[in-house]
Amino acid sequence: MFQNSKILMQYLKRKYGNGCKSRAELQGWQEKKVQEFLKKILPMSNFYRQYYTGWAINDWPTWPIINKKIMMDNFTALNTVGLTKEEAFAVAMAAEESRDFTPTVRGVTVGLSSGTSGNRGLFLASKDEQAKWAGAILAKVLPGSLLRTHRIAFFLRANSNLYQTVGKRQIQFEFFDMLKPIDEHIDRLNKFQPTILAGPPSMLRLLADALHNKLYITPAKVVSVAEVLDPLDKQCLEAQFQQTIHQIYQCTEGFLGVTCRYGTLHLNEDLVVIQKDYLDDECRRFSPIITDFSRTSQPIIRYRLDDIITERTDGCPCGSPFTAIEQIEGRCDDIFYIEAKTTRRLVPVFPDFIRRAIITADECIIEYVAIQKAESHIQIGLRGHQAGTKERVQNSLDKLWDIMNTVAPHIEFIEIPHKIAGRKLRRVERQFVVRWEK
């Protein structure tokens, strides 16, 4: 009952807003929330208390910045629930191996995330934070009333207690494990008949290709998550699903953005403050510096993401004071295709699985690239490796091929290529044309 009331309270709060009608009002409200949060959280986190010693609360916008490396190096001292980094990693890795994502540690959900930087990270969510997240996600994503029946089909590499918190009474939530065969997903979807379909754009493209052939669903809303929604993918998906494709911008560091009813992506500035580190002279492209004033188990304060975000030049018809985004220029991922052992057909292997296999193999890996040159040839570049790292990466990828029941491709270890000026960094990239594309 406590969880349900928390979800409902957060739903109403996020659905009907905080009363801010302008940027000035919003920024004043945010400033008050952040200062209240910092006064509460600094005594609770050993890391932040020491990191910001000597800094005045009202000067927080200029405090030193942290990033994923700093957070992970100081994870034990940073979190406020008493979890060690080793303890949290053990739980997260056990869930990855078993595919059972329900276990918690002292009531706290632990998850593993690679993020845009290519090295693995951890996220924590207490029961209270799960309820708040569920209320916020329902308010911002559900079409229509909370009292209506909603059937949500959610495709991700890993399930989480965080997502399962959403399933309440009228809301039916079904997790679809992307490690499973696509035909199995199609059968389940035909039976489930989702009103909301959410997943990475690479998976949505595969499902869209099956529409009116094997797949017979008519979701009222399609939501892109986890991967960057490329404009070409967006165009194709909207043509095939005959509707606006919505987006959720979420990562380890928080629930950062969601599209409004007009399909415009807005930053969730009622949940987080996002300072803009501008990257070009036009002042439209920036990297976000995040302060989440509602998250206490793993506080996020002045955290810089490597994502590149482009602001819209015009406003949005919805009238929201929240920043409108033209696009997120994160990494662009490609699906790998590997030959199946039994049928000899090409099997899609999603970028996140390649990424996870590499980053979970050895903690010393700080950067990587994976390039599929041909059906049976993959190049792997590593930075931060030591004796035995390449063997561990090879073994980890071999486990993935076994799970996917595919022929093991040849792995060639290379030096990480220098970044080409003007080209987006792609850590997982397919450089060959699959058979049916020729």
Q: What is this entry, summarized?
A:
Helices cover 32% and strands 24% of the residues. The protein has helices at 2-15, 23-41, 46-51, 68-73, 75-78, 85-98, 127-141, 161-164, 182-192, 201-210, 231-241, 351-359, 389-404, and strands spanning 109-113, 121-125, 150-156, 171-177, 196-199, 221-224, 245-251, 254-259, 265-267, 272-278, 285-292, 303-304, 309-311, 324-328, 336-339, 346-349, 367-374, 377-383, 410-414, 428-430.
Overview of this protein structure:
With 438 residues, the protein is of the alpha/beta class. The chain folds into two domains: 1-330, Rossmann fold (3-Layer(aba) Sandwich); 336-437, GMP Synthetase, Chain A, domain 3 (2-Layer Sandwich), CATH 3.30.300. Helix content is 32%, strand content 24%. The protein contains 13 helices and 20 strands. Strands 3, 4, 5, 6, 7, 8, 9, 10, 11, 12, 13 and 14 form a twelve-stranded mixed sheet that branches. A four-stranded mixed sheet has the order 19-18-17-20, with helices on one face. The protein starts with a helix and ends in an 8-residue tail after the last strand. Mean pLDDT is 85; it is low at 420-424.
Give keywords.
GMP Synthetase, Chain A, domain 3, four-stranded mixed sheet, 20 strands, 438 residues, globular, alpha/beta, Rossmann fold, 2 domains, twelve-stranded mixed sheet
Kindly estimate the percentage of residues that lie in beta strands according to DSSP. 15-25%
- Computed Rg: 22 Å
Question: What is the rounded distance between the termini?
Answer: 57 Å
CATH architecture title of the largest domain: 3-Layer(aba) Sandwich
Report the uncertain regions.
420-424
Helix content: 25-40%
Number of strand segments? 20
Question: What is the general shape?
Answer: globular
**Helical/strand content category:** alpha/beta
User: Main beta sheet, described?
Assistant: 12 strands, mixed
Tally of discrete structural domains: 2
* Average pLDDT score: 85
CATH class of the largest domain: Alpha Beta
CATH superfamily of the largest domain: ANL, N-terminal domain
Count of helix runs:
13
The CATH topology of the largest domain:
Rossmann fold
